[in-house]
Each structure stands twice: as structure tokens, then as C-alpha cells.
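Complex 83.
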Amino acid sequence: MISLAAVVQQWPALDSRRCTACGLCVTICPTRCLSATPWGPWLARPLDCLACAACISICPQQALYWRSIPPESPEDESSGRTE
Ligand code: SF4
Ligand code: SF4
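Predicted structure with iron/sulfur cluster bound:
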């Protein structure tokens, strides 16, 4: 099955400079495709992402944003916004 995120070519990405690792985004994700790490969420299963925007909407720090490529590794996410 192809994920909706793959169809629209948008995945949530992390701006680690803003994230406080509160975990709200991980908790609200309906498909559990986000995993908690010490520096914030990691999109561990991008193929399961529905592009529903729940994680982006709930973030109190505006630390998540749409990106046109899925992250390749947790280190990629932790490096912060690159666009
Ligand atoms: S909701 Fe925002 S601040 Fe909290 S862990 Fe997720 S990205 Fe970080
Ligand atoms: S967009 Fe929706 S499905 Fe994708 S990671 Fe965020 S909450 Fe989960």
C-alpha cells in the first residue's frame, strides 16, 4: 500500500532548534509512525505516514514542517532545518 504522504510527496520534518521533545506529536500520530528520541520525534516509518498534519498541528513549538523528502536517518532529523 502506498502512503498518502508518498502520494502528496510531503513528510513532517523536525526543526530541532525549536523542539523541546515533549512527545505530543508522537502520542497523537494515528499510525504510530513517529518514534520518540531524546531530541524529539523521528519519522521511523515514513511509509505509514498519512500526511494528516496532526503532528504539525499539535506542536506547541511549531517545530514540525512539511518537507518534500522523507528523512533518511535520526541524525538527519536532529541536524535541524536544512531548507
Ligand atoms: S510536539 Fe513539537 S516540541 Fe513536542 S516533541 Fe513534537 S516536535 Fe517536539
Ligand atoms: S502527518 Fe499524521 S500520520 Fe504522518 S507523522 Fe504526522 S501525525 Fe503521523
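The chain has a mean pLDDT of 86.
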